[in-house]
Design goal:
The protein is an alpha/beta fold. It has one domain: Alpha/Beta hydrolase fold, catalytic domain (Rossmann fold, 3-Layer(aba) Sandwich), CATH 3.40.50.1820. The protein has a nine-stranded mixed β-sheet with strand order 1-2-3-5-4-6-7-8-9, sandwiched between helices. The N terminus and C terminus are likely disordered. This is Alpha/beta hydrolase. Keywords: Hydrolase. InterPro entries: AB_hydrolase_1, AB_hydrolase_fold, AB_hydrolase_sf. GO terms for molecular function: monoacylglycerol lipase activity.
């Protein structure tokens, strides 16, 4: 895949967004209309002028809300935006129905080209990590650093706990799962997600659990929810099978941006053993291993991840002020 396959886009139309989606204190939502897609963008007003821009990309089944805790801890360090990928969060499905890794990467690139915010500090988790890797490989001009939390890069032997997610990619499985789980409550579904994604689900506060249940109920009411999940899962599986220059590991080797890799020892979706391979693949990388974390370390240990990112910028000489070095939430 060459950069010509992920073209620039004309300027977006931007509309403030207010709705049922949860917005944390200090955050705001807006909609950005681009050719073929409409993206919901979550942002925090920058603490001061001149902060470098950052963009956060969530994983399969997630949303921009997954980054709220980390974004708050990076106030004063970067100017943060997190997007809802097409078909997730509060973004409607793409017009062309393309939920491939390349399709999602194209959405990220269109947003960055239209907003003129690049180069950014680019963050990605899980599926978003694969998307961010592809963006950094094909458009290095848009990425100043890359932070990947449990990126969905190909594994020869996936963990057994990851198989149900991969099975969603098979035709008809999403419909079958929908029928089987028709009687499941939103609370049951959220508990299942937390058990799969967190190293210790017990760290989720009662308020956080209630918010997750409310969001689950909202998403289940969307007519395209399972289609977006199934097609995006299929996109990840298809990306795993690509070889040559299209392969994600080959593209990881092409990334020029300094890269922070974050892996959790209790991750049930991305093997902890892949951390060392990733550290070798990305040419300018550092590795943060969190033995107690699961699949979403930026939600479980946001302060630790923020500190590692802060240290990356310090080593690169990119901290914008002395106070940012020791910033705490």
């Amino acid at each position: 895949m060459s950069s010509t396959e992920l073209p620039s886009a004309p300027a977006a139309s931007v509309t403030p967004r207010v709705g049922a989606v949860r917005v944390a204190e200090g955050e705001r939502l807006r909609s950005a209309g681009l050719p073929g897609i409409t993206l919901t963008i979550r942002s925090r007003p920058p603490a001061r002028e001149g902060l470098p821009p950052a963009l956060y990309v969530h994983g399969l089944g997630g949303s921009s809300q997954n980054w709220s805790a980390l974004m708050a801890r990076l106030d004063g360090l970067v100017d943060s935006e997190a997007l809802d990928l097409p078909g997730f969060g509060d973004s409607p499905p793409p017009d062309d129905g393309d939920y491939s890794v390349t399709g999602h990467a194209r959405a990220v690139i269109r947003h960055l080209d239209a907003s003129g915010r690049g180069p950014v500090h680019l963050f990605g988790n899980s599926l978003g990590g694969a998307v961010a890797t592809r963006v950094a490989a094909v458009r290095p001009d848009l990425v100043r650093t890359l932070t990947l939390v449990s990126p969905a890069l190909p594994e020869i032997r996936a963990q057994r706990t990851a198989w149900p997610t991969a099975l969603l990619a098979l035709p008809g499985v999403a419909g079958l799962f929908t029928r089987i789980t028709r009687e499941w409550s939103a609370e049951q579904r959220v508990r299942g997600v937390l058990a799969l994604c967190y190293g210790d689900p017990g760290i989720v506060t009662p308020e956080g659990f209630r918010d997750a249940v409310e969001e689950m109920e909202r998403r289940l009411a969307l007519p395209y929810f399972w289609d977006a999940m199934a097609r995006s899962a299929r996109g990840v599986v298809n990306a795993y099978t690509l070889g040559g220059q299209h392969g994600l590991w080959r593209q990881a080797e092409r990334v020029l941006a300094p890269t922070l890799l974050v892996y959790g020892g209790r991750d049930q979706l991305v093997g902890y053993r892949m951390a060392q391979r990733a550290a070798r693949a990305f040419r300018d990388s550092r590795l943060l291993s969190l033995p107690e974390a699961g699949h979403v370390a930026m939600m479980e240990y946001p302060e630790t991840v923020a500190t590692a990112f802060r240290e990356l910028l310090a080593d690169l000489g990119e901290l914008t002020s002395p106070m940012a070095v020791g910033a705490e939430s």
